[in-house]
Amino acid sequence: MHITLVKKIKADGSPCRKCAEVVDRLERSQLLGRIDRVVVADERDPDSEGMQLAGRYNVDWAPFFIVEDDSGGERIYTSFFRFLKEVLGQNPRQEEETTEMMRQNPDLDFL
């Protein structure tokens, strides 16, 4: 398995807040070493590798993960907590997953 993390630099040159949070959490959990490659999607440079990957996979949310399995298949994860659970075998708290889902889908609401 090969894991690529794509993180973003915003148009004003500042790092993406959520991307920094994800990298920090991976570091604190001693999981960053399981990421094979980190690529930057620089909004100021549409030709940056990360922007090209985002376009190729039709992703407009950062950070995201590209997971290549040993048979060459790929899976894209835009949800950090789903990635943690399905790829790294970690169990995030349900509240964290729900908060992330709501942030990514502001048109959703609880009943």
Q: Structural class from helices and strands?
A: alpha+beta
User: What is the spatial order of strands in the main beta sheet?
Assistant: 2-1-3-4
Number of strands: 4
Helix content class:
25-40%
The backbone outline, from C-alpha atoms, is globular
Give the CA-CA distance, first to last residue.
39 Å
Biggest sheet features:
4 strands, mixed
- The count of helical stretches stands at 4
Overall pLDDT metric: 86
Describe this structure in words.
The chain has a single domain (2-104), classed as Glutaredoxin. It has helices spanning 17-28, 49-56, 80-86, 94-104, and strands at 2-9, 37-42, 64-68, 74-77. The chain is globular, with a radius of gyration of 14 Å. The protein has four helices and four strands. Residues 94-102 have low confidence and may be disordered. The protein has a four-stranded mixed sheet with strand order 2-1-3-4. It is an alpha+beta fold and 111 residues long.
In short:
The chain contains four helices and four strands, in the order βαβαββαα.
